[in-house]
Specification:
The structure holds 2 protein chains of 2 kinds. Chain A is α+β, with helices and mostly antiparallel strands. Chain A has 8 helices and 7 strands; from the N terminus they run ββαβββββααααααα. The chains are: A alpha+beta, B alpha+beta. The complex binds iron/sulfur cluster (2 copies) and FE2/S2 (inorganic) cluster. One iron/sulfur cluster binds next to helix 4 and helix 5 of chain A.
């Protein structure tokens, strides 16, 4: 018989139902990733006990670690399934849905909250309109590089999963949105609405709730400069609050 | 009077551009997509966006861009819309610049340009090696801004099911399904814009995302929307072969000095540089693809005797590479295992893009009144072959045009038009019925296995080199798969998040479009752009300078042809071993 690999998957039929574990043996192929292992289950939805079952549900799109869709917990670590190569993983491979977001079905979760946070901090440039009005402001290449690094966040949620301060009991919005706030205060046009953004990120759920554990930095697949972003936002919100306080006096 | 409302289907570049344009004009928008926009396939576009901004003072002009696009597309594209696109391109770049896209900059802080295939100028603006992601995020942010104001309703996690047409065949809305609760509903719209991307999945392992299912285009084709130039499928010359997908190695790797070679007589052989001295490694995609294919398949000179050649960047400065190509080098490292800064990458061509798509007029409207299309799902801007850097441009430009023309279309309508509710009820019940039938499927076939077979056949016979007998066999095969489709067994009967049932429904549309592509190719007895038949190696303008139009019938596609708009540039022979002839402006 051909080589197989064992997958141990935490499944859940829907948001309300109880999770359970199911194991699968799927044929091994050189260079395969966790997604292609899951695809094998679609081709033959039979579990390790030989019982017919439903194909596992998961989310994916790009399969090249640029869309963030396929994020799940693989062997206890939050990461993208498409870039998790089977050869580099301990077996059995244990797959679980992210725990900081509501489960939709099996490995699929609802990360809508992260997009809501982006609304709170107004993570966009307030352009006058979508007509043609010549070039935007010049940006020094050095600033551009930092901004570009921040703008690669694919809202995957790994950092939320790793952050001890993002949990049921806290209102902390998490590191990703802090980085995006930094991005939009960096842009020359975005700077114009700096005050509003700083208000949003210095209040409840904002950057002050970060305990500086730096777990997020370790897990971000896109290597976002989160340390620098959080540090700078801390400073910016501090002087922002100070200014407001002085004004109020 | 209530605000006019449009429906946009697709959350990639084309759909989002349409959305913000329509919102700005005061329309309300219902935006449907499989998921959050950040997950859409536009994020995968790497190389950049072409625009004759000429920031390097080379004398590049929109006319040159226009001419390169027409020439690169082997004269099959209608020239009026392409001209409009190229003239607007610099403005598009500046618009994104204002919206905050982090384009690479020169030392003066101006936008930087690079060279891509088929072009003699530095014309491609870029944001690292993730330009598509960056442009997409920029538009997504703008849509969120309107969402915050409550003017756009985002339906994320929904599948468009069908267009709702009234008794006069005018599009009045859509039906769609919530992919979590599986609920099927109808939505009214004064106009509908389809921006659902390409049908890559028909070919199985491609450079496309898994959500490029081809469903929407296939469904609309079955509802009477014509499909144009389906046979023109672009094979990207440089992809990293993989088990689940072939990952793209962006053309910018060649643009930044990457050289293609293999061993011949024990020595490195730079065959593109030898065969095409004028353009070298920067020949257009179809030319590079056929050359690599010839070296590997016909001459047996692939690396290690396999279907692979080298794409080499190891002679370049690693820091510069990281700044300009970081994202794509990461992809190679992650999925290919080696460091491309040190060793040459191994690559082979893979299906990448569909030049063909839903037929539209110069206003992006299909042959169904009130139904528009923009982006890769339509056929308008690339003719027989697309130039690198023109894909995102055409998606954005198409979206801009659609966003403008829907406004004109709606203001031309009698005000207060009321579509009968019965047409919506009827369409919803039709969709529910089909879905119910899928739940009754108890046959022996596995839908994913059928899909795999389809992909393998299409990739083998309907990509780089096409022979009439094999095309015919492929069409027979597709018909066989259509028979076997009815013997599929459903493995998941839950009414919650049932990806299995949804996949089956999509497969049927893919089979339909596969026939359009294959039969279009079978009929076209010439070679033009990406369509290459060794039995008919030359372009035949006398008989084939025409657009293929496929119309759905129950017995398969009915093909007819339409004249191409060539009013600005006279067709001339396309070759890349010498410099392109100069054409006159105007
Ligand atoms: S530094 Fe720690 S507490 Fe702060 S966001 Fe990152 S993981 Fe959370
Ligand atoms: S900051 Fe990194 S880990 Fe967090 S969501 Fe963005 S890409 Fe993912
Ligand atoms: S599928 Fe896009 S990140 Fe994995």
């Amino acid at each position: 018989m051909a080589d197989t690999i064992r997958l141990k998957i935490k499944r859940q039929e829907n948001a309300e139902s109880q999770p359970y574990w199911e194991e699968f043996d799927v044929p091994y192929q050189k260079n395969m990733n966790v997604i292609s292992a899951l695809m094998e289950i679609q081709l033959n939805p039979v579990n390790a006990k030989g019982q017919k079952t439903t194909p596992v549900v998961w989310d994916c799109s790009c399969l090249e670690e640029v869309c963030g869709a396929c994020t799940m917990i693989i062997n206890k670590k939050a990461r993208q399934a498409c870039s998790a190569l089977v050869d580099q993983l301990d077996k059995p491979i244990v797959l679980e849905p992210l725990t900081k977001f509501p489960v939709v079905c099996d490995l699929m979760v609802d990360r809508q909250i992260m997009f809501e946070y982006l609304k709170k901090v107004k993570a966009w440039i307030d352009v006058d309109g979508y007509y043609f009005a010549g070039p935007g402001p010049r940006v020094p290449e050095k600033v551009r590089r930092f901004a570009y690094d921040l703008s690669r966040c694919m809202t995957c949620g790994c950092c939320m999963e790793a952050c001890p301060n993002v949990n049921d009991k806290s209102t902390f919005m998490g590191p990703a949105v802090i980085a995006q706030t930094r991005l939009f205060t960096l842009h020359p046009t975005g700077e114009a609405n700096k005050e509003e953004r700083l208000d949003a990120i210095s209040g409840k759920g904002g950057v002050a709730e970060c305990g500086n554990a730096q777990n997020c930095i370790q897990v971000c697949p896109k290597g976002l400069p989160l340390r620098r972003a959080i540090g700078e936002m801390n400073r910016l919100t501090f002087s922002h609050s100070l200014k407001k306080w002085l004004k109020a006096e | 009077m209530a605000k006019a409302k449009i429906i946009v289907v697709g959350g990639g570049l084309a759909g989002l551009m349409t959305t913000v344009k329509a919102l700005e004009a005061g329309l309300e928008v219902d935006l449907f997509a499989y998921g959050p926009s950040k997950r859409s396939h536009s994020a995968c576009a790497q190389g950049g966006l072409n625009a004759a901004v000429d920031t390097m003072g080379e004398g590049d002009t929109p006319w040159e861009h226009f001419d390169d696009t027409i020439y690169g597309g082997d004269f099959l594209a209608n020239q009026t819309p392409v001209k409009g696109m190229c003239e607007t391109a610099p403005d598009i770049v500046y618009l994104f610049d204002r919206m905050g896209t982090m384009f690479n900059r020169s030392s003066e802080g101006r936008i930087l340009v690079r060279r891509l295939g088929g072009v003699k100028y530095h014309r491609t603006v870029f944001a690292g090696a993730t330009t598509g992601q960056q442009l997409l995020y920029t538009l997504d942010e703008q849509v969120r801004r309107w969402e915050d104001k409550g003017l756009v309703n985002r339906y994320e996690g929904w599948e468009f099911l069908s267009a709702v047409l009234d008794e006069n065949g005018v599009c009045r809305g859509i039906t769609a399904q919530d992919l979590t609760s599986m609920e099927i509903c109808s939505f009214k719209g004064d106009a509908v814009v389809i921006a659902t991307g390409g049908p890559g999945m028909i070919f199985g392992e491609t450079t496309n995302s898994t959500l490029n299912t081809g469903y929407a285009a296939g469904q609309l084709y079955m509802q009477g929307v014509n499909y144009a130039n389906g046979e023109f499928i672009q094979i990207h010359p440089t992809a990293i072969p993989g088990a689940d997908k072939n990952r793209l190695m962006s053309e910018s790797a060649r643009g930044e000095g990457g050289r293609i070679w293999t061993y011949k007589d024990g020595k490195p052989w730079y065959f593109l540089e030898e065969w095409y001295p004028a353009y070298g490694n920067l020949v257009p995609r179809d030319v590079a693809t056929r050359a690599i294919f010839k070296v590997c398949v016909d001459m047996g000179l692939g690396v290690d005797g396999k279907n692979m050649v080298y794409l080499d960047l190891s002679h370049k400065d690693p820091e510069e590479l990281d700044n300009k190509l970081g994202g794509i080098l990461e992809i190679y490292e992650k999925f290919g295992g080696d460091d491309p800064r040190k060793v040459p990458m191994k690559i082979f061509p893979a299906m990448h893009y569909s030049m063909g798509g839903l037929w539209v007029d110069f206003n992006q409207m299909t042959n169904v009144t009130g139904l528009f299309a923009a982006g890769e799902c339509e056929y308008q801007y690339h003719g027989a072959n697309r130039l690198g850097g023109n894909g995102m441009l055409s998606a954005i430009y198409g979206g801009l045009v659609a966003g403008r023309t829907v406004v004109e279309y709606i203001s031309g309508q009698e005000s207060g038009h009321k579509a009968k509710s019965s047409i919506f009820e009827f369409e919803v019940s039709r969709q529910k019925e089909e879905f119910k039938q899928i739940y009754k499927m108890e046959g022996k076939e596995n839908p994913y296995a059928l899909q795999k077979e389809l992909g393998e056949w299409m990739t083998r016979n309907v990509t780089v080199v096409r022979y009439n007998n094999r095309l015919q066999e492929t069409d027979n095969k597709i018909q066989e798969l259509m028979e076997r489709y009815h013997n599929i067994g459903l493995d998941n009967h839950n009414f919650w998040c049932n990806q299995n049932a949804v996949f089956i429904r999509q497969l049927w549309r893919r089979l339909q479009l596969a026939r359009v592509i294959t039969l279009g190719a079978l009929a076209r007895n010439e070679s033009r752009g990406a369509h290459y038949k060794p039995e008919f190696p030359d372009r035949d303008d006398e008989n084939w300078l025409k657009t293929t139009i496929a119309e759905y019938t129950a017995d398969g596609p009915k093909l007819s042809y339409e004249e191409v708009d060539i009013q600005y540039i006279k067709p001339r022979v396309r070759k890349y071993d010498v410099d392109k002839e100069v054409t006159m402006n105007g």
